[in-house]
Structures are given as structure tokens and as C-alpha cells.
């Protein structure tokens, strides 16, 4: 069974909840490992077949602070053999809604990862509708 790593940065716990839900959705297809960004390192990404990164968006389109070091380390990684996708949480009232998704996608692409799915964006609350959309998004992983 292929390995999937889900790395998330979460301040309020909502992005963590999305990561854990995502893990449950794909566990029949992948051997999944969920890691808080503060505990993740390059080796965690290298050991996986598929990389799933999640971050909320803060300020004016900024990554969640715990995701910054991992995002920076992507610049020095070779992920050409990896498939990847990104998920995020934000507030559509802001101009740069879920911009952390875009930032992480750019970093993964520059490291050579193949993006297999357009990023999943959750607007403010991870309610039943958002969970349904996540499950639909995850089926293409």
C-alpha cells in the first residue's frame, strides 16, 4: 500500500480537524501518517508516495506560522518522484482567500512534485457541507 503523509499547520484546531478527517477518508487507499508541521521534517516527505500539506491563511495571505519552516525547506528538496496536493482554511471575506494553498502549491511544484489535484479550500467553518466537499476532493487523490 502506498504511503501518504498529511502535514498541517493549525492554530485554532480546524486545519488539524481537516487533516484528521482527510486521513480517515483516504485510509483505505493509503497508509496514512498525520503530522503537525512543528514535528515534520524533510524525511517525512521523502518517505511518502503522496504528500498532502494543509495550512490556514493568516494576515494578508500568509501561511500559518508553523508551516513556514517546512515551506522554506521545500526549496532545497527534490520531490520529482512525489505526488502532492494541498488543503487550506481561510475566510472568503478577505481578498487573498486561502492564499496559503497557492503558496504551498508553488513550493511543491518548484521542488518537482506533481500536483494531482487543485487545492481544497474551506471557508471559515469545517461544517457538514465542507466535510462533504473534502470527501469529494479526496476521492481524486
- Count every helix, treating DSSP H or I runs of 4 or more residues as helices: 5
CATH architecture: 3-Layer(aba) Sandwich
Number of strand elements: 7
Which overall shape is indicated by the principal axes computed on the Cα atoms? globular
How many domains? The number is: 1
CATH topology: Rossmann fold
The separation of the N and C termini measures 14 Å
Share of β-strand residues = 25-35%
Specify the helix fraction band: 25-40%
What is the H/E order?
EHEHEEHEHEEH
CATH class term: Alpha Beta
Brief write-up:
The protein has 141 residues and is α/β, with parallel strands linked by helices. Helices cover 34% and strands 27% of the residues.
Can you describe what's shown?
- The chain has a single domain, classed as Flavodoxin domain (Rossmann fold, 3-Layer(aba) Sandwich), CATH 3.40.50.
- The two termini are 14 Å apart.
- The protein is 34% helix and 27% strand.
- It is α/β, with parallel strands linked by helices and 141 residues long.
- The mean pLDDT is 96.
- Strands 1, 2, 3, 4, 5, 6 and 7 form a seven-stranded mixed β-sheet that branches.
Keywords:
Rossmann fold, 5 helices, alpha/beta, globular, 141 residues, seven-stranded mixed β-sheet
What topology emerges from the helices and strands here?
Layout: E1 3-9, H1 14-26, E2 31-36, H2 42-46, E3 50-58, E4 62-63, H3 68-74, E5 83-90, H4 99-110, E6 114-115, E7 120-123, H5 128-138
Parallel strand pairs: 1-2, 1-3, 3-5, 5-6, 5-7
Antiparallel strand pairs: 3-4
